């Protein structure tokens, strides 16, 4: 592999551990906290997790290591979408495991959870692991989206663990993967397999967070990467003064990524899905809101601007969700083949018109034709519309264009509206981790091994106090069941980790809401620039604005 100068330099970086983990393995002991209960539905969750529910929260502190001296054989899995820092979780886990006992072994199951089921692995050693220190990506062992959730899968996993003498599995993933980790931990305990299961909180989306998990890893680097690009686009917009840029940012349903990027770059517009849902905004109302900014800026001679659109926005528009549900219904079963066989778009349009309610047809009719067609082209394996593939940045710019045309006809607007579109997603998921993510991830992995060594199972590796310098971070573990509630999934009530959406009464949104009226009309852009890896701590170790505001 040919190395870039930055990669070579990043190999030399020593990630910072929380103070209590810095004195060497022999000087880490456990401080017991309170017994826990789930955030809701306590009786139901307790019934589902008789062996792992209600355990104590723990933190580590400096003191004599009293854990049992036994050989550990650990399996690690990367699950779901890539997030910067994943390699450092593996490195931290590996270093703690080897520092405890050089005979300990780390299996990396390849390609995500399916690697465990298919017994597809690589044994990790110094030469291999060292190539991935402080680098982005999940290519050390690969990732995948297979869900570990059935008894049959658990039985296979238990067999594979038995075959290799595996004593613990570490699952690095988002809310669903950690929910599955808790269920797997319960299965392993109930069947006396002797296999512990520990989770680590990952996702760039930032939606795995709660009173215990301050943020998931990868969010910091991904949002800094997007914000750098958005800032650069803003500067171009402010230089050329001739384009409105519509920028969609990844983040699945929740708008945490969009909000963080807005806090970092102060664009003219940033839509927040959770607010759209709370206010029950229609597509027309959203377009009108954006068009107000375009028109007011045009009146001041500024025919340019930047609008951030979160990936999941359309799901939050009530009338759009109804439309999607009706389309899914309309194309159920044999109807898909019938629809596909229709020769022209005109025939297809007539089919759609006959099948949708009047209200949904009215929403459908205002969509640009390419978006209308997209709704019928991109289907998931269950035949449903893939909402994440809808080009919402183009949808909203088209709706705003129509709105402005009407204003022009009414004589209330006389500007120019030239648009450019961008989608920022995959660009940020494998970036070199920021110092924050490099440190946080290494600490999560190191800490995960300490949880294993002290015999815990069904716990999430928890590192908190993250808005402070790393030596003040607090390392420990939290039973995953504490984060669970019951939710309806695929027609069944299931115990799951609650997904965190943007809180409209939270400080990050409140700050945004207080400032956005000014940002919409004036040019208040800020240019965060590229992630800095070397230099003063106030530049290199900066946390997200979201975390800073939440902890202020
Ligand atoms: P995770 O929830 O697994 O971390 O993945 C998040 C994400 O990056 C979303 O932001 C995005 O919608 C999705 O993955 C894209 O998935 P894929 O990589 O399968 O295209």
What shape does the CA trace take?
globular
Bound molecules: 1,6-di-O-phosphono-beta-D-fructofuranose
Low-pLDDT segments, ≥5 res: none
**Computed Rg:** 25 Å
This entry's quaternary arrangement is single chain
Structure classification: alpha/beta
- Round the mean pLDDT to the nearest integer and report it: 96
Number of H- or I-type helical stretches: 23
Strand content: 15-25%
Strand order of the largest sheet: 1-2-13-12-7-6-3-4-5
The largest β sheet comes out as: 9 strands, mixed
Total E-strand runs: 15
N- to C-terminal distance? 44 Å
State the share of residues found in helices, binned by percent.
40-55%
Walk me through this protein's architecture.
- This protein is α/β, with parallel strands linked by helices and 552 residues long.
- It has helices at 5-11, 42-48, 86-100, 113-117, 126-130, 151-164, 175-190, 219-240, 256-265, 273-278, 283-299, 313-316, 318-330, 335-341, 345-355, 358-366, 369-377, 392-409, 426-429, 435-453, 507-521, 537-540, 545-551; strands at residues 28-35, 56-62, 73-78, 105-109, 121-123, 168-173, 196-201, 244-249, 269-270, 305-310, 419-424, 459-464, 474-479, 484-489, 492-497.
- The strands form 3 sheets. Strands 1-2-13-12-7-6-3-4-5 form a 9-stranded mixed sheet, sandwiched between helices. Strands 9-10-8-11 form a 4-stranded parallel sheet, with helices on both faces. A two-stranded antiparallel ribbon has the order 14-15.
- A hairpin with a 2-residue loop joins strand 14 and strand 15.
- Helix 11 (283-299) crosses helix 18 (392-409) and helix 13 (318-330) packs across helix 16 (358-366).
- The two termini are 44 Å apart.
- The mean pLDDT is 96.
């Amino acid at each position: 592999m040919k190395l870039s100068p930055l990669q070579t330099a990043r190999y030399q970086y020593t990630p910072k551990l929380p103070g209590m983990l810095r004195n060497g393995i022999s000087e880490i002991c456990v401080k017991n906290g309170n017994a826990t209960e789930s955030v809701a539905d306590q009786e139901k969750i307790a019934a589902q997790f008789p062996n792992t529910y209600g355990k104590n929260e723990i933190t580590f502190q400096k003191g004599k290591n009293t854990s049992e001296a036994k050989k550990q054989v650990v399996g690690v899995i990367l699950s779901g979408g890539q997030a910067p820092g994943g390699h450092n979780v593996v490195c931290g886990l590996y270093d703690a495991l080897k520092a405890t006992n050089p005979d300990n072994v780390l299996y990396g199951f390849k390609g995500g959870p399916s690697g465990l089921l298919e017994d597809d692995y690589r044994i990790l050693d110094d030469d291999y692991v060292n190539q991935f220190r402080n680098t982005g990506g999940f290519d050390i062992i690969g990732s995948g989206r297979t869900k570990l959730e059935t008894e049959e899968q658990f039985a296979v996993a238990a067999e594979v663990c038995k075959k290799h003498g595996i004593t613990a599995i570490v699952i690095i993933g988002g809310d669903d993967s950690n929910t599955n980790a808790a269920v797997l931990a319960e299965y392993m305990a109930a069947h006396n397999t002797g296999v512990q299961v520990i989770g680590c909180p990952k996702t760039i989306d930032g939606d795995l967070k709660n009173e215990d998990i301050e943020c998931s890893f990868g969010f910091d680097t991904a949002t800094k990467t997007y914000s750098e690009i958005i800032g650069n686009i803003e500067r171009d917009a402010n230089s050329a003064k001739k384009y409105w840029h519509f920028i969609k940012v990844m983040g699945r349903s929740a708008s945490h990524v969009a909000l963080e990027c807005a806090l970092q770059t102060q664009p003219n517009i940033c839509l927040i899905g959770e607010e759209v849902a709370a206010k029950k905004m229609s597509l027309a109302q959203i377009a009108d809101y954006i068009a107000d900014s375009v028109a007011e800026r045009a009146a001041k001679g500024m025919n340019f601007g930047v609008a951030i659109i979160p990936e999941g926005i359309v799901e939050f528009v009530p009338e759009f969700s109804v439309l999607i549900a009706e389309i899914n219904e309309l194309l159920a079963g044999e109807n898909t083949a019938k629809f596909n066989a229709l020769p022209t778009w005109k025939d297809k349009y007539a089919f759609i018109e006959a099948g949708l309610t009047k209200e949904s047809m009215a929403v459908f009719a205002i969509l640009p034709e390419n978006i209308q067609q997209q709704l019928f082209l991109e289907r998931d394996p269950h035949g449903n519309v893939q909402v994440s593939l809808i080009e919402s940045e183009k949808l909203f710019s088209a709706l705003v264009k129509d709105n402005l045309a009407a204003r022009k006809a009414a004589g209330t607007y006389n500007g120019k509206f030239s648009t450019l579109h961008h989608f920022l997603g995959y660009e940020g998921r494998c970036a070199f981790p920021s110092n924050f993510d490099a440190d946080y991830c290494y600490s999560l992995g190191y800490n995960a091994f300490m949880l294993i060594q002290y015999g815990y199972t069904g716990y999430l590796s928890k590192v908190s106090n993250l808005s402070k310098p790393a030596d003040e971070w607090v390392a420990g573990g939290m039973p995953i069941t504490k984060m669970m509630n019951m939710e309806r999934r695929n027609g069944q009530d299931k115990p799951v980790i609650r997904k965190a959406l943007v809180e409209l009464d939270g400080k990050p949104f409140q700050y945004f809401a207080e400032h956005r009226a000014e940002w919409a009309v004036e040019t208040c852009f800020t240019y965060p620039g590229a992630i800095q890896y070397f230099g003063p701590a106030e530049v290199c170790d900066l946390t997200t604005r979201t975390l800073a505001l939440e902890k202020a």
